[in-house]
Amino acid sequence: MSFKKNEHYTLVQQACDLVPAFKIHYQQFIEKATLAQSSDSLIMNYSRCIAQVALHFSRVPHTISTDELNSYLYRICVHEQKSEGYFKQAVYGLRYWLRVFGKEEAALRMPPVKKKNTLPQVLSKQECKELFKAPRLLKHRFLLAFAYSAGLRMNELRLLKIADVDLDRKQIHVRQGKGKKDRYVVLAKLMADKLPLYLKELKPKTYLFEGLTPGEPMGERSIQYIVNEAVPKTSIKKNISMHTLRHTFATHLLEDGIDIYSIQKLLGHSNIQTTIIYLHIAQVRPQLAHSPFDTLYQKS
Questions:
Q1: Of the candidates 49, 77, 108, which is a domain's last residue?
Q2: Residue tagged active-site, from 25, 48, 140, 246
Q3: Of 46, 96, 207, 278, which one is the catalytic site residue?
């Protein structure tokens, strides 16, 4: 597992250097998480949170009492006012770590993380057009449009290789997406038409969207920066992220008449309930029910 050139590496290395026994226990954690086929992003997020706990207490987390851990979680939530997402990752990371080291009872005493039944933010089609033309650089314009056009997750976008884009079949091969699953998604005709120009101008070596180092994918922060830089140049007042483009993709497909099961397949959702949320967002006109017998003898 490589943590070079990012904040996760820095925090983990600090913990390995400064906290007694952290290095050897962290290696055990990595081995268990890898054998469980946990995603790289999960391991990185949990590692960052666990390392911060270890640095705060100068002890490995499974030797810290649950009362101390809960006090720490209370402090980052209330006094430091960390984001809800950060708090969740800290709780999940600690639970995972504690279970790795046989502390099931302590894991169960971690605070519950309640799911909020909130609807995702989406853009209108006009807002999408504004956003995609806002960046000055071709690379940034193409990246935003491409992410929306295929409904890709952040890591699916940044780890997409040039070889995985099939111009002839108008398909994108998403390899090892969430849940370690492969799938195919549609390649928009307009994106396929623009791709040769993009490749000629940017000359990426391996990945479709590369960072400053040739042959290496862009970082998550760099991609989110593109969104953050583009939005102020538009009339969009919504608080959006890269994932907003994925929500918008699904919602617009529904509004264009695509059925929910096809959208589930394109998004790579294992559970249809995850996809159904877009039914509450999409502006779809209800159709009057009719008997199929009335259309049975209509000429096609």
A1: 108
A2: 246
A3: 278
In a shared domain, residues 46 and 156: no
Burial 79-97 (b: 16+ CB within 10 A, else e): eeebeeebbbbbbbbbbbb
Residue 16 structural domain = 7-108
Active site (annotated) includes residue 56:
no
Is position 290 annotated as part of the catalytic site? no
Q: What is the pLDDT of residue 7?
A: 45
Residue 299 lies in a domain: no
Q: Minimal CA–CA distance to 268: which of 115, 122, 155, 106?
A: 155
Q: Do the beta carbons of residue 136 and residue 249 sit within 8 Å?
A: no
- For the question of residue 246 being annotated catalytic, the response is yes
Active-site hit among 243, 280, 285, 290: 243
Each residue's pLDDT tens digit, 186-203: 999 999 999 999 999 999
- The tens digit of pLDDT for each residue in 260-278 reads 999 999 999 888 888 888 8
Is residue 278 annotated as a catalytic residue, yes or no? yes
Is the same domain home to 145 and 90?
no
Spot the catalytic one: 59, 178, 183, 194.
Answer: 178
The one catalytic residue in 153, 158, 247, 252 is: 153
